[in-house]
Amino acid sequence: MQKKILLLLVLFIVTKTEAQIQISNNALVNTEFSTTIFREDFDSVSSDWPTLSNFNNLFMVQNGTYYMNRKVKGEPYAILSSKKITINAFQLNVRINPIEISLDGYVGVLFMLQESSVGGYIFEIGPLSKYRLRQVKNGLYVNITGNSKSNGWVTAEGLINYNQNNIISIACQNRNYDLMINSKRVLSFNDIEYKDGSFGILIGPETKVSIDNFVLMGTEQSSGPANNVNFSTNTDMKAIDNAELVKLKATIEKLQNDNDELLLVVETMKAKGYSSPDDFETKYVSSVANYNALKLKYDSLVNEYLLLKVACDSLKSVQETPVIKDPSIDALMLELDGLKQKNIELEQENAVLSRKIKKVSGSSFK
Question: pTM of the predicted model, to two decimals?
Answer without folding.
Answer: 0.58
